[in-house]
Amino acid sequence: MPSRRVALTVLVAALASLAATVLFDVLGTVFFALTVTYLLAPLYRRLNDRLPPWPAAAATTVVVTTGLLLALASITLLLARRADDLMRLIREIPSSFTLVVLDTPIVVDVSTLLAAARDAVSALAVDAAAALPTLALKLTVFAFLVFALLIHHQDVERAVLAAIPHTYHDVTSALADRARATLYAIYVLQAATGFGTFLIALPVFFALGYGPFPTLALAAGVLQFLPVVGPSVVVLALAGYHLTTGDVTSAVLVLVVAGTLVAWLPDVLIRPRLARETANLPGSLYFVGFTGGLLTLGPVGIIAGPLVAALLAEGVRLLAAEQNRERVS
To answer: How many CA atoms lie within 13 A of 112 on its CB side?
Structure first.
């Protein structure tokens, strides 16, 4: 007959599966709240040293929710105000242009890509407007979850550890440390680098004479979350636009100036100062986790993909260490 702990573990797993089925539409919000709470626990404990649990949890929740709300509102406002500018910019791109390779003219037809870009911008504006009520409701759920989890996070940790045999607590601790470092890298390091990129890109794109420079700067900052390429996408897109219009000088100028100050400088100025607490996840593995998570789970996969990849890497490391220990003994 199974032990009581095994029976309760099976019961919890079954109830978790049922909850995942019933609450499928808010699973992303729940996951987001769990990861944010896990990262905010040290801040909550510091506040709790000076304040009772409820005010400390409320203050922490207000800070993170306000920051998230301001970020989403800024992105939505800029997209709404600059959608027409983006459409006008796309319309100005010629449907075809000619490249000369070894004295042979080659006509490149980009009309299909331009049509797809126009449809994407229009669909993005419509989808953003339609998603606002749902987004507001999910943000409310997120705030309540963060508040509740902050107050009861120690009870949750004790319950999880109680269900795990004592001999595996070191494994749990190693995975928890890896998860915390990975979440720090995603939320804190990437967000700080993205914000720094936005601040640097504003005057750079303004000086280069781009009308929608706030939108371009915002795109460069958001793209810091895209591994490997990051803001280079914006720089290359602008250079490509100038090449299609025959303006080689502007293309070279944006590649050199924006490529150096926007795509390269933030990584040099900001990232090394915050990278001590990260998981040191290889760029290739992070890219696979980011891309796979995004394609499989949608926006929540931006967080879940790299986190799963990091935990897998930590599990492989623990297994290798255990095998080496067995060989030695």
So the answer is: 2
Task: Report d(CA 312, CA 63) in Å as an integer.
Answer: 32
> How far apart are the C-alpha atoms of 303 and 33, rounded to whole Å?
11
List 100's β-bridge partners, or say none: 105
One-letter amino acid for residue 153 of the chain: H
Q: What is the DSSP letter of 1?
A: -
CB 220 within 8 A of CB 234: yes
Does the pTM surpass 0.85? The reply is no
pLDDT tens digit sequence for 25-77: 788 888 888 888 888 888 888 888 888 888 888 998 998 888 888 877 777 77
* HSE-up of residue 90 (Cα within 13 Å, Cβ side): 19
Residue ranges covered by each domain of the chain: 168-329
Rounded to 5, what percent of the chain is helix, strand, coil? 85, 5, 10
Whether the CB-CB separation of 301 and 294 falls below 8 Å is answered with yes
